Amino acid sequence: MEFLFIELQKNNQPLYEQIYEQVRNKIADNELQPGDKLPSKRKLANFLEVSQTTIELAYAQLHAEGYIRSEARRGFFVEQIDELTPVSAPVALTETEETQKLPYLYDFSPGTIDTSEFPFATWRKYAKEIIDESYQDLLQLGHPQGDAELRSEIAHYIAHSRGVQCTPEQIIIGSGTEQLMALLLRMLGEQSLFAIENPGYLQMHPVFEHHHHPIVPIDVDQDGMIVEQLIQSEATAAFVTPSHQFPTGAVLSASRKAALLNWAYARKERFIIEDDYDSEFRYSGRPIPSLKSLDQHGKVIYMSTFSKAFMPSLRMAYMVLPPTLYETFKYDVIQYAATVPRFDQHIVARFMQNGHFARHLNRMRTVYKRKMQAVIETLDTFSPTLTFFGEHAGMHVMIQLDDDRSETQLVSLAKQQNIRIVGISQYYVQRAEQRPTFLLGFGGIPNEQIPKAIHSLLTCWEL
Ligand SMILES: Cc1ncc(COP(=O)(O)O)c(C=O)c1O
């Protein structure tokens, strides 16, 4: 072959790339067939009025990718290629219900937070300080457990606010409670059997499932997990939310706390995982002491998150390993790189160090307390058609109806009015009680809209 017709454009794309692409497309379209001889570099360079180096680069690329072969003293030939995967424009994503953001009129789902008071200015200031040449080192991989600066701030914070005594070495930072739990499952081994609260934190179920870990559901009542059931079970580890049971809002009673700790103390292989996810937001009485602060024998693995205190999109949670577990597993842990970006870790560390975190929490506690009051005042007017509980902490209350309709029917009635609400059945492994019960999350609903939002929901249920 003496010539190849190639159209060269005067644009930003290098000439050799244009030649390479067009020859490749001719091969893909069978315009050039296996065994065809390409023009020599010199002839093609003359024909296209480009330098020989340009042709050399294009042929070298085609050769490297296996489209052509070179034969000594004979030249370049098109290769036999079984099936060419066309290099085409990326396929456009089709929008599904999940990828579309549904414009809810009111979203009562429990994971949303109030965003109106977020200290953007301070966050921006620290981000600006840290994303700077003077912190080039943060571009490198950090400590697998998370950087020491943040771990040390967390150690101070949980010692003061939750009575958790630990060294920064015992802390592991991860991109969420689920990710930390997956790490823990590897540490505690395949033989461990996990007891979980029923109802409980739904997001944890797939973690057990994906690791082929059997779980034992343990019922929950107004005093939290029924520890007597746990004692009767074969479980070796218990995942609990003692200070604010999720989703019922119950607080684990003092006697059950003692029973739970004694259950763990009785056997070497037994551990308790305390998920202390929103202890910052308690509105009446004294803060509930963490279970970890009562643990005398290193049996409680303490977990918490910045999802409620800061924002769920930060993806930053932490756990504290008891010293024995830490000593046993520290070399396993360091085989995995940290899952939280270092810049984010350092922004949060600064926030905590300079007292902004404590101030933010105080401000948010007042914001949510006011919202909770507005929720209670509105719900009170519907009593006794509707009862509610779990109003002393957190960002949702439970509402229960005396109604023959199912939760599913009521959820879809709300959805027809663009209102999102989640039924408690979603959080159960098994459920006996059938009265429709819902989580009424108010974190993301502006204070002044709360009465109207609740009225709209209850109106569509004809209450
Ligand atoms: C019971 C419970 N645990 C933990 C979390 C936080 O999980 P993560 O740190 O993965 O956002 C939540 C939700 O925010 C929760 O409701």
From TrEMBL:
For this protein, the parts annotated as crossing the membrane are none
Question: Which intervals hold domain HTH gntR-type?
Answer: 13-81
Q: Which cofactor does it need?
A: pyridoxal 5'-phosphate
The family database entries (InterPro entries) matched by this protein are listed as: Aminotransferase_I/II_large (IPR004839), HTH_trans_reg/aminotransferase (IPR051446), PyrdxlP-dep_Trfase (IPR015424), PyrdxlP-dep_Trfase_major (IPR015421), Tscrpt_reg_HTH_GntR (IPR000524), WH-like_DNA-bd_sf (IPR036388), WH_DNA-bd_sf (IPR036390)
Q: Which Gene3D superfamilies match?
A: Type I PLP-dependent aspartate aminotransferase-like (Major domain), Winged helix-like DNA-binding domain superfamily/Winged helix DNA-binding domain
Q: Which SUPFAM superfamilies match?
A: PLP-dependent transferases (SSF53383), Winged helix' DNA-binding domain (SSF46785)
Name the family: In the C-terminal section; belongs to the class-I pyridoxal-phosphate-dependent aminotransferase family.
Question: How is this protein named in the record?
Answer: PLP-dependent aminotransferase family protein
